[in-house]
Amino acid sequence: MGEYVDATFSKNPSLFKSGVFLWSYLSSNSRERIYLYTMSEKQKLPIMEMFYSLQGEGFHSGKPAFFIRLAGCDVGCVWCDVKESWNAGDHEELSIDHIISEVEKAKADFVVITGGEPAMYDLNNLTNQLHNIGCYIAIETSGAYELNGTFDWVCLSPKKFKPPTISNYKLAQELKVIVLNKHDLSWCEEQRSLVKNKDCKFFLQPEWDKQEIMLPLIIDYVKSNTMWQVSLQTHKYMNIP
Ligand code: SF4
Fold this sequence. Notes:
- The chain is α/β, with parallel strands linked by helices.
- It has two domains: about 5-35, no CATH class; about 45-235, Aldolase class I (TIM Barrel, Alpha-Beta Barrel), CATH 3.20.20.70.
- About 25% of the residues lie in helices and about 30% in strands.
- A nine-stranded mixed beta sheet has the order 6-4-5-7-8-9-10-11-12. It has a three-stranded antiparallel beta sheet with strand order 1-3-2, with no helix packed on it.
- It is globular and about 50 Å long.
- Iron/sulfur cluster binds near residues 73, 75, 76, 116 and 159.
């Protein structure tokens, strides 16, 4: 996490330097004081992988995207295809600066923060710095934890194992329900009724291993429930990460 540096600006003008965020207030003796926040060069996040590819699913499907996959998840979906992400301790912790330099190297302008469950972490510093370099930021979350950060696109993918918080239903710009069985086609309506954003996009995505059985049912469902769209994991068809 970041460090607070208590300083009197008038005596320490050199403390203004690039890479610091500052705010000020008047203390009880009316002396202007400046608190400098070092933008958390020291904050590290457990990263399972980072790569530049295409967003394969949901609203932004087909767009070039730099993926930051944070490690750590306690949601426990039985069908999870990234179980190796669950234990954050199995993965390297990388500094925000390091992460940003990888995004810059890729020359990416669209970043998808995913996991694991990325909302387990305070992402304010990461998202601030990504915005500073001009990135559009999407997050993919189960919504089980409150979001800490500034996101341009919130994809809420609710899981029965650990439901989203009420506030995350308000933030969702995209609701993506993974359909594993027929019951999920009624559960998706429960989830839709909780979303408060009238512009939210609704997607039904077959769980990859059940696709053969579930996709025809989803297609029929979407044809008669036209607020929904089909989402497929197109990156898996393209053999890209
Ligand atoms: S929330 Fe995502 S990472 Fe966590 S168990 Fe479910 S599918 Fe896996």
